[in-house]
Automatic annotation (TrEMBL):
PROSITE patterns: GST_CTER, GST_NTER
Organism: Collimonas pratensis
Superkingdom to which the source organism belongs: Bacteria
InterPro entries the record matches: Glutathione-S-Trfase_C-like (IPR010987), Glutathione-S-Trfase_C_sf (IPR036282), Glutathione_S-Trfase (IPR040079), Glutathione_S-Trfase_N (IPR004045), GST_C (IPR004046), Thioredoxin-like_sf (IPR036249)
Protein's recorded name: Glutathione S-transferase, C-terminal domain protein
Sequence ranges assigned to domain GST C-terminal in this UniProt record: 86-207
Pfam families xref list: GST_C, GST_N_2
Domain GST N-terminal: 1-81
Length: 207
């Protein structure tokens, strides 16, 4: 059986859990990470030298990096519904997944650590303001895309891109700050909330 190593509160672990839910894929999960087993232990570092969660074990196959993991699961166990086989359709899904990982994630890092994790080292007002402005601007890019599709990120069909982006929207809404009025993003959040997997692993109050 597929094994997922990582605590369920981690946004990156939740990507994997939600994807398994969408695929109807059974799994076993072990708690690793802050508050649980240490990811800098030799046993864990042998699986992931970055000491980060999640890691999966699928038989003798070990994989880390959450977006790579969910791509693998959708390809190995899906029917093309979440991650299409056609090159151009697949590229559009992966484009938005990569944008989430590189552009959107970088925009919120300072603000999230300051406002949610309350790290005392993150107390630079100018850096916080810049991060909040960048975060809002990037969510605005998603707003434009969702306003055009009127449904999910790539159109009227839920795809793998909606997993990291849906969790990112949850993080944005759950962070205590002033939120810009993005009606398409709000409608998207409610649309995702009709999916049992999102209710279990996304809209749960955890940023």
């Amino acid at each position: 059986m597929l094994k997922i190593l990582g605590k369920a509160s981690s946004i990156n672990v939740r990507k994997v859990l939600w994807t398994c839910d969408e695929l109807g894929l059974p799994f076993e999960r072990e708690d690793w990470g802050s508050g649980f087993r240490a990811t800098d232990s030799p046993d864990y570092l042998a699986l992931n030298p970055n000491a980060m969660v999640p890691v999966i074990r699928d038989g003798d196959f070990v994989l880390w990096e959450s977006n790579a993991i969910i791509r693998y699961l959708a390809t190995a166990y899906g029917d093309g519904r979440l991650l299409p086989a056609a090159p151009r359709e697949r590229a559009r899904v992966e484009q938005w997944m990569d944008w989430q990982a590189t552009e959107l994630n970088n925009s919120w890092r300072y603000a999230f650590v300051a406002l949610v994790r309350k790290n005392p080292d993150y107390n630079d007002a100018a850096a916080l303001a810049a991060s909040l402005a960048s975060w809002s601007r990037h969510i605005g890019i998603l707003e434009q895309q969702l306003a055009a599709t009127s449904a999910y990120v790539l159109g009227d069909r839920f795809t793998l891109a909606d997993v990291p982006l849906g969790l990112s929207v949850n993080r944005w809404l759950m962070t205590p700050m002033q939120h810009a009025d993005y009606p398409a993003v709000s409608a998207y959040f409610e649309r995702l909330s009709l999916r049992p997997g999102f209710l279990r692993h996304g809209r749960n109050g955890l940023p």
